[in-house]
């Protein structure tokens, strides 16, 4: 890892100690969204040290506020002086060209993201705006209409967003002030505003503050608070809200309820089950367990409304060392701090687990050919991962091209050709998304509802670049 500091500050000893400290932090970092404030004047050395001490390995949101002695010029100069791991390097390469100057004079930018949904797609630009394209029958694009969009449109009425996610036909976002916003389908209360009325523009989820991430399930939503608690709302037939209730077709909560778990660093909502990583690297699961997707060596049990700990490989002990999880419909995926990928649940005839077999697993198995990974994503029957060199891998099943290499099924993690320098990935139901370090967005797979954003409804078996607003140029986030 090479650090290029435009402003040499202090002695070589200071620089060496900073590098060692930073590498130690990165080795132990937990992947989560972190909001960082640096009150900075002209003391770049102190500001750099503070930033490196708090930086996370993969998921990153960054907010810089210059104090009374700092100017916008100073702020951009400071950002330009930073070096970073590959997974976040694009932020600093593009600063000065993206981001916004807030009304109070402070400079704001966030880590770009994409989120693949059932039949629509979301993108978070580094200036904190959200863009959407694809199916819009429930207002899930947030542009005030119910008309499908073949290329990206801006989501109305929200800015300074630091995290996005989507469910089946609804969308979620977290603002820099920690509030949560939702739009789209609301039949089961998945917007959390105590109604069942859909909304084509973002609405604030009441009484939620100090949140840092969200995740959308089929018809429910999860949100992770900065204090490590998880809150959930929407459909709850399988106990997927994790509050100890559920079991009836009519089970739901129109307002957020607290899940029975704490000390959480990452959470994911699947179709009918939920996953969470605790700060100690253990994994917990709740909700539907018909195919062993809870990873507790039991299957066929209709649901478990209380969080239970995921067991280890071959049912030995418990799964540990995990930094991120992603819940699909009938299987689950986890990323460990050493770059390995683990999977469990349904696997019959679809290779969802990537272990080279079609055997369903009640406890985690290692996904083959997946090493040095820094990101994972899964939806329905296909999976994606990205490694520390920016290469994208896929496995599982998809007949619409979502694996990215022309295959319908792949039994182990296999490289997606034609993609490099990728920093963010997201699997939709039948399509896939990726962001390169230059901020361009790429998509492949099913496109019947315009979810690839290229102005057509043609499925793509290999990655194509997402177009810009009104089909002009290309989207860059």
Strands, helices and their partners?
Elements: H1 12-28, E1 39-40, H2 44-54, E2 63-66, H3 72-81, H4 89-94, E3 100-101, E4 107-108, E5 113-116, E6 120-124, E7 130-134, E8 149-154, E9 161-166, E10 170-175, E11 180-184, E12 199-204, E13 211-216, E14 220-225, E15 230-235, E16 252-258, E17 264-269, E18 273-278, E19 283-289, E20 301-309, E21 322-327, E22 331-336, E23 341-345, E24 361-366, E25 373-379, E26 382-387, E27 392-397, E28 409-415, E29 422-427, E30 431-436, E31 441-445, E32 460-465
Parallel strand pairs: 1-2
Antiparallel strand pairs: 2-4, 3-4, 5-6, 6-7, 7-8, 9-10, 10-11, 11-12, 13-14, 14-15, 15-16, 17-18, 18-19, 19-20, 21-22, 22-23, 23-24, 25-26, 26-27, 27-28, 29-30, 30-31, 31-32
Write up this protein.
- By secondary structure, the protein is mainly beta.
- It folds into 2 domains: 12-108, no CATH class; 122-471, Methylamine Dehydrogenase, Chain H (7 Propeller), CATH 2.130.10.30.
- The protein contains 4 helices and 32 strands.
- The chain has helices spanning 12-28, 44-54, 72-81, 89-94, and strands at 39-40, 63-66, 100-101, 107-108, 113-116, 120-124, 130-134, 149-154, 161-166, 170-175, 180-184, 199-204, 211-216, 220-225, 230-235, 252-258, 264-269, 273-278, 283-289, 301-309, 322-327, 331-336, 341-345, 361-366, 373-379, 382-387, 392-397, 409-415, 422-427, 431-436, 441-445, 460-465.
- A hairpin with a 4-residue loop joins strand 18 and strand 19.
- Helix 1 (12-28) runs parallel beside helix 2.
- The radius of gyration is 21 Å and the shape is globular.
């Amino acid at each position: 890892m090479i650090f290029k500091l435009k402003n040499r500050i202090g002695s070589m000893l200071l620089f060496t100690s900073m590098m060692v400290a930073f590498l130690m932090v990165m080795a132990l970092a937990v992947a989560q969204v972190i909001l960082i404030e640096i009150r900075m004047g002209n003391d770049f050395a102190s500001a750099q040290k503070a930033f490196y001490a708090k930086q996370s390995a993969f998921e990153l949101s960054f907010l810089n506020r210059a104090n009374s002695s700092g100017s916008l010029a100073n702020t951009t100069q400071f950002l330009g002086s930073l070096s970073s791991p590959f997974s976040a390097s694009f932020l600093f390469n593009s600063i000065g060209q993206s981001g916004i100057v807030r009304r109070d004079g402070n400079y704001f930018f966030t880590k770009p993201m994409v989120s693949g949904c059932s039949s629509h797609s979301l993108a978070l630009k580094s200036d904190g705006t959200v863009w959407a394209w694809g199916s819009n029958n429930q207002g899930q694009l947030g542009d005030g209409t119910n008309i499908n969009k073949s290329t990206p449109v801006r989501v109305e009425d929200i800015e300074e967003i630091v995290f996005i996610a989507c469910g089946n036909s609804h969308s979620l976002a977290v603002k820099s002030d920690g509030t949560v916003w939702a739009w789209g389908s609301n039949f089961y209360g998945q917007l959390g505003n105590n109604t069942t009325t859909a909304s084509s523009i973002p609405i604030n989820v009441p009484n939620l503050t100090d949140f840092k991430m969200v995740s959308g399930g089929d018809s429910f939503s999860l949100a992770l608070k900065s204090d490590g608690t998880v809150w959930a709302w929407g459909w709850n037939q399988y106990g997927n809200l994790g509050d100890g209730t559920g079991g009836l077709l009519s089970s739901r909560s129109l307002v957020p309820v607290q899940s029975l778990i704490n000390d959480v660093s990452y959470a994911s909502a699947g179709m009918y089950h939920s996953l969470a990583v605790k700060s100690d690297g253990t994994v917990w699961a709740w909700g539907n367990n018909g195919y062993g997707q809870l990873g507790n060596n039991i299957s066929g049990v209709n649901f478990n409304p209380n969080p239970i700990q995921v067991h280890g490989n071959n049912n030995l002990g418990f799964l540990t060392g995990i930094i991120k999880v992603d819940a699909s419909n009938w299987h689950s995926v986890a990323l460990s701090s050493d770059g390995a990928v683990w999977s469990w649940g349904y696997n019959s005839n679809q290779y969802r687990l990537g272990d080279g077999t079609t055997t369903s697993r009640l406890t985690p198995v290692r996904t083959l050919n997946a090493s040095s990974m820094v990101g994972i994503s899964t939806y329905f029957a296909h999976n994606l991962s990205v490694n520390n060199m920016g290469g994208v891998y896929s496995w599982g099943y998809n007949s619409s091209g979502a694996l990215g290499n022309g295959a319908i099924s792949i039994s182990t993690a296999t490289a997606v050709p034609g993609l490099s320098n990728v920093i963010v990935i997201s699997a939709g139901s039948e399509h896939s998304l990726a962001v390169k370090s230059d901020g361009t967005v790429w998509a492949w797979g099913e496109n019947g509802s315009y979810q690839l954003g290229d102005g057509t409804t043609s499925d793509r078996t290999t990655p194509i670049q997402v177009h810009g607003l009104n089909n002009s140029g290309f989207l860059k986030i």
